[in-house]
Amino acid sequence: MKMRPMHRGNTKNRKIRYAVVGLGHLAQVAVLPGFAGATNSELVALVSGDSQKARKVARQYNIDRIYSYNQYEECLGAGIDAVYIVLPNHLHSVFTLRAARAGVHILCEKPMAVSSTECREMIKAARDHKCKLMIAYRLHFEQGNLQAIRMAQSGKFGEVRYFSSDFSQQVVADNVRLTQPTSRGGGPLYDMGVYCINAARYLFRAEPEEVIGTVASVNSPKFAKTDEMVSVVMRFPRERIATFTVSFGAAEMDRYSLVGTKGALTAEPGYEYAGGINLKVQVGEKAQTLKFPKRDQFAAEISYFSDCILKNKDPEPSGEEGLADIRIVEAIYKSVSSGKVVNLGKYEKSKRPSMAQKITKPPHSKPKTIDVESPSGEAA
Ligand code: NDP
Q1: Which DSSP symbol is given to 325?
Q2: Which end of the chain is more exposed for a tag (fewer CB within 10 A), N or C?
Q3: What spacing in Å lies between the alpha carbon of 25 and ligand 1's midpoint?
Q4: How many angstroms does the Cα of residue 289 sit away from the middle of ligand 1?
Q5: Choosing from 15, 110, 222, 361, which is the catalytic residue?
Q6: Residue 10 placed within a domain
Q7: The pTM is what?
């Protein structure tokens, strides 16, 4: 018998019950352990294509319900309030649609999907079935990142003029980021580029008007299906520019800078979840470094999403926020293939992250992991 998701009834003092879908690297190092710090949330089921791994993970987290992907609907109908989708990018859309049809709320990893069409379908399905849909932009709740946003808005740097970012890592050939072609969300732009696009958008608090992109890859079988690196220029209203390079074939780099007429900040690392975030702030002769220690950004985003469900609020990193990035990714690839500047057209976006969204959760210790490796090939 199908159980009613509890969000339809009285939600006072209740916990949102989640199924985590996909037990890969991120799920095991960050998402599953994040539930311990999200006190309004409860991890009750796992969905995986690997039953042996799932059984071991279930034992570790004391969970007695395991489902295969074919049994997803059964899972959705068994008293689950929300799913946290941690699957490869090309599966975000289909697993979101299936959850929405079952009336189950969806927290979906970034990038939201592979195309703007998929994003729109996800938004519509969530709306039609009265489900909350949030894209897991964990940095929207992270203090260091929100501090950078606050400073950019405060006028401290004068008029903010340009943003630049480098984000790279060496990804091993058999990782899903390289085995899936660009058309299915493989490659550094979908994986890392969305962080740079998202950051430029929330720091400028605007949507770009035009983009131009270029790609480059060494001649290696590793980059047969997708690009090694992508470089992008985005032109924002008021004559502002954002540039970034993302790469799967270069040493680890994780930084962005925001430069204004009177000062600048550099965040390095700027996008990290496994460590802290540092902001170097320079105004005239005065320089200071602000250090924000490692926090559990996943506990923060899970508890935020549960709170939205419990209080019937619309999450800020909404489907529209995910779509805002993906339509830019699409325009970048259009520019890459045409060699021309691509005009993005108007996109209205009123809600953006601000310090009001800060959620601070203490870090957890390194969890034991089963049969997963990091994108760079290290056993986690
Ligand atoms: P992994 O490849 O490590 O894990 C993906 C998991 O998805 C697999 O382990 C598998 O789990 C499941 N899966 C189902 N179908 C497939 C398929 N066809 N091919 C491969 N795997 C499949 O990826 P990550 O954990 O690194 O990334 C997962 C998602 O999380 C991505 O969307 C990524 O962008 C996002 N991400 C977000 C981060 C953040 O900071 N917010 C950081 C890293 C990733 P099973 O064996 O259980 O079926």
Answers
A1: H
A2: N
A3: 6
A4: 34
A5: 110
A6: no
A7: 0.96
Let me know whether 230 and 332 are in one domain.
yes
In this structure, are 234 and 284 located in the same domain? yes
Q: 204 CA distance to ligand 1 centroid (A)?
A: 30
Neighbours of 274 (CB within 10 A): 12
Ligand 1 environment, Cβ below 6 A: 22-27, 48-50, 53, 86-89, 91, 109-110, 136, 138, 176, 191, 273, 372, 375
Q: What is the CATH number of the domain that holds 199?
A: 3.30.360.10
Q: Spot the catalytic one: 67, 195, 202, 273.
A: 195
Atom 8, ligand 1: residue with shortest CA distance: 24
Looking from the CA of 314 toward its CB, the CA atoms found within 13 Å total 12
Local confidence band at 11 (pLDDT 50, 70, 90 cut-offs): low
Residue 28 alpha carbon, nearest atom of ligand 1: 25
Predicted confidence (pLDDT) per residue in 143-196, tens digit: 999 999 999 999 999 999 999 999 999 999 999 999 999 999 999 999 999 999
Q: Is the pLDDT confidence value at 47 over 80? A: yes
Query: Is residue 43 within 8 Å of 18, Cβ to Cβ?
Result: yes
Catalytic residue flag (residue 18):
no
- Domain identity same for 160 and 95: no
Distances in whole angstroms, Cα of residue 148 to Cα of each of 78, 83, 157, 294, 352: 42, 31, 11, 16, 13
Asked about 195 being catalytic, the answer comes back as: yes
Whole-angstrom distance, CA of residue 125 vs CA of residue 37: 30
Total structural domains in the chain?
2
For residue 61 the two structure tokens come to: 């987290």
Residue closest via CA to ligand 1's atom 4 equals: 24
